[in-house]
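Quarterly update from the structural biology core.
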Amino acid sequence: MKTIATAFSPDEKLLAFAHNNTFYIFSLENKNIIKTTKIANDAIDKMIFSEDSLYLLIATKNGRILKYRYNNSSLIDRLYSFRYKQKPSYATAITRYKNKLACGGNDGSLAILDPDIQMKRNILMESGEKIDCLCFVDENKLISADASGTLKVYQLDKSKLIQTIHAPFTNINHIIPTQNKNNILISSSEENYICAIDIEKGVILKTHYIDCENTVNFMIISNENLLCIITKEKLLQKVKLPVSSDLQQLIENNELAKAYKLIEEEPLLNGYAEYEILEQKYHKIYLRILEALIDNDKTEALKLKKLVINIKSKEADIQTLFRAFEHYPQLKKYYIGKQYALAYGLVMKHPPLQYTPIYKQLEEKFLNAFVNAKRHIELNNVPHAKALLQEYITVISKRPIIKLLLQKDKDFLQFLKAIDKKNFQIQEELLLKHPIFKLAPTYKKPKQSIEETIDTIEYFINDGNLLEAKSLLLQLKATQHIKPTLIFLAQKIQQVNKLQYAYKENDFKTCYELLDKFHFLNDTKLGILLNNYWVKVIKKSEIMALNGDMEGVLNQLSQFLDVQSRKYKIGSLLRLASLSKIKSLIAKENYEMAKNLLYSHIDIFGLDNEVRALMELYESLSKDKLAITQEQNERRDRNRWTKESILQKYILK
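Predicted structure, tokenized:
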């Protein structure tokens, strides 16, 4: 018997394995199979346990995502179905993180689900290349790998593709985040090496990060930061991955050269906080060398150079610094002689000279000349403005800005006016059209960009602090280039306000219908509170349903019966309660009542694979042939159960 899918529970107590249409739950503690379940008219392809280890989520060959409780054979729910397009679609990759389940298909579709709240769906891709592998980095970051070896990084809270990286191979079968979440390791089912990638920068850190004896079948990082690799030949290879403490120790001992060498050898250390500390230490030494050279203290400069001379990656940096200061006396001469074009030209050739006092004085002189020229332009006195800037017109870096001013460019003058009035929105809007405007000497980058302000507004909306959100939104109202975003934010504020009012009035029907209509509300503090309550009630109802207590399920969920958008889930639980009751009656050999309930079940919920399997079981054990009418064979409306008379008739049986 060939195993086609396996899954370990997060609590490490259970192992699920499957063959064709049957899955088995094996207790790792008691070393025995505790449950065997057969899926009717379908085949299992992939499996994964839920975060709490209670449920097994199964992807089938027919394109369905099913939910089973580990200790029960009844289907709890059908979470998702892939659309049938030109050919059958099915899941080729599934993964989960807390309450999120990601499903990628052979048709390139990519959906994010919440198994407890089925209305919370986020379709990231409708179609594309087959998805081979998926991996959550954290709650809001997902990586997908398609058949062509393209890695895509999604920011889930914004439903946005933020990075695309082309891997050195196709058939990616594993993606693993390292301790530093910006870096991942990937493997291919056709290659015998593992590649390291920085997803933040979108670059390959090292193609052959680890060479293996054969192609990689499976890999995982243990709690001890050991990378455990199982190859095609079932060989186990263990590799100790670098940890930040290795780098920290070298920094504390001031062994900077060794620290940088370690980073060269172990690129996964890039991006750690310790790496930033190392860079800061190097920068401080660089600035001290710079100060010594400015003071013409060559002895001190050479002494400091010895601290960093053995750092290979900084060698060119230091050489450039010393070479630049060979020309510092010449820069002074140009400045004193008011040969500004030559002075700026020298700085362009030797960039470290821009940190000298002479260069700062050059920039101050240009700023004063520019401000005075601008004043003359406003008075329509172009000749005076031109005379003030005459000394800089041949400076390559200043020429474009000077031309814009002297030609009285409409957008540029508006930009300068926005700088004077500190109107950061107009500044940023014009900079998007004309990036060169940032070269204006009067321009200073604002402390908070428009994008950062939008993020702050989003935070206030999700927190329910609508007054603060409105206040910040008003500050951006003049920013035309983000008008659609501003309209959307205003709509979000409006809907959160409605949700808050409905909650205050105890109008739960409106609350949940708003959550299901406007999915962004699920990420608000109030939305999370309401959904947590829903999940709590659903869990209780599920236990009742597994015990066949339909009346108990109805009573438990009575407060949600009018919520149109959640009727599918309620119907699933009622269907589960009905099937569980019928199974119980068959087990007790109460065939007459089981038969009556089977007919009632078909009238309300219709026929499906699981009901047909139950009918076969009934007929086999009772030796009684069920008579199904043409009407009962017809497809039933999913929400037929909502007709009170039908359901009441069932409960009274």
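Residues 324 and 424 are 37 Å apart (CA to CA).
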